[in-house]
Write a structure and sequence with these properties.
CATH superfamily of the largest domain: DD-peptidase/beta-lactamase superfamily
CATH topology of the largest domain: Beta-lactamase
CATH class of the largest domain: Alpha Beta
Radius of gyration: 19 Å
Largest sheet: 6 strands, antiparallel
Oligomer: single chain
Number of domains: 2
Number of strands: 9
Strand order of the largest sheet: 2-1-9-8-7-6
Length: 363
């Protein structure tokens, strides 16, 4: 067990020399957890057994798994146009956008709406975000470029709810969180769930988010909204369980299927390589799976310098990251409360340490 103590001490040393005041880290190989580490300087939360972190865009790949699983169950085809399900997408500029475009960030729709702050100040619903998205004109023809797009996931929420007959938070809980026993995870915290609110770690706010407003990352509105592009609250341990499930090709610890094996394979492999109109950069060096990003070794946002290009994962604006690698069965979850722009160098140092230190071949 010496490796655990060594890793924990070195991780805590890196965190201690940074401006990060809250972190939850879990990493391992296959079904084995090798290191668990938590650092929390928020006085009010030190006595909390399991603090909860706003994971931001780590939300997207979970939502994407539901979309791809529904395709595997015959609900739709990934190359079907969104207009087949949402009438607002029947107008000219949007007619060619497919489900696959939304999952691979190739739709041309905006990341954030011009009306983003106004909508948040008005405490808009996800449906309202999706409706405003549907009146935007794509910045490029679908499939001809790749540009990160959060609003595509607002659109996907409406589609999931139409097909399932359930709200997305409930459907995610039933299909993923409960089967994997992710008891400390929710897409949106119920406004009256005071026990959950007392466990939430406040975020350091990025420039442009006023401290005294009622719509920033720490507001009850935002944390209860359950935005499908960034509203998941969770712990490193819960997200570790998800990564382990995917490394088992979609089964829980007892071997029961949560996702079809082909869903996992499709979601976590290079999908943009098949877009003939994309540049070679996006097809080969900046590839996306379906909601999951592959590792970009030559990019500042690479998951680790010691992972191959086939590793997959995601990052979040609140200072979060998770990744896994099928070939070695290594996986890692790092949650912080410092905006990505400031925390990314520290997260990558910790990620490098973990990736280079984990044994391989454990089961």
């Amino acid at each position: 067990m010496a490796i655990v103590a060594t890793l924990e001490e070195r991780i805590l040393s890196i965190l201690g020399d940074s401006a990060i005041v809250g972190a939850d880290i879990c990493a391992g190989v296959g079904d084995q957890v090798v290191v668990e580490c938590r650092s929390l300087q928020h006085a009010a939360l030190r006595a909390v057994e399991t603090p909860l972190f706003l994971t931001a865009s780590l939300t997207k790949p979970l939502v994407a798994l539901l979309v791809v699983q529904l395709a595997a169950e015959g609900a739709w085809g990934l190359n079907e146009p969104v207009r087949n399900f949402l009438p607002a997408f029947r107008r000219g500029p949007l007619r060619r956008i497919t489900i696959r475009h939304l999952l691979t960030h190739t739709s041309g729709l905006p990341d954030m709406l011009p009306e983003n702050e106004q909508l948040r100040a008005e405490h808009a619903s996800v449906q309202q975000f999706a409706e405003v998205t549907a009146v935007q004109n794509p910045a490029f023809l679908p499939g001809e470029d790749c540009s990160y797009c959060s609003m595509g996931f607002a659109v996907l929420q409406l589609m999931i709810e139409q097909i399932s007959g359930r709200s997305l938070p409930c459907y995610l809980r039933e299909r993923v969180l409960e089967p994997l026993q992710m008891v400390d995870t929710a897409l949106g915290i119920p406004s009256d769930a005071e026990a959950w609110w007392r466990r939430t770690v406040p975020c350091q706010l990025p420039p442009g988010q006023p401290v005294d407003c009622d719509w920033n990352w720490n507001s009850r509105y935002w944390r209860s909204l359950g935005a499908p592009w960034g509203g998941l609250t969770s712990t490193a341990g819960d997200l570790a369980g998800l990564l382990q499930c995917l490394l088992r090709q979609g089964t829980d610890a007892a071997g029961r299927p949560v996702f079809a094996a082909e869903v996992v394979k499709a979601a976590t492999s290079n999908q943009t390589q098949h877009f003939s109109a994309l540049s070679a950069e996006h097809r080969e060096r900046r590839p996306w799976g379906l909601g999951w990003r592959l590792n970009w070794p030559d990019h500042t946002g690479c998951f680790s310098d010691f992972l191959g290009s086939e590793a997959w994962g995601h990052w979040g604006a609140t200072g979060t990251q998770m990744w896994a690698e099928c070939a070695t069965q290594r996986w890692c979850v790092i949650l912080t409360e410092q905006p990505w722009e400031q925390s990314q160098p520290i997260i990558q140092r910790i990620s490098n340490l973990i990736a280079a230190s984990l044994p391989t071949g454990l089961r």
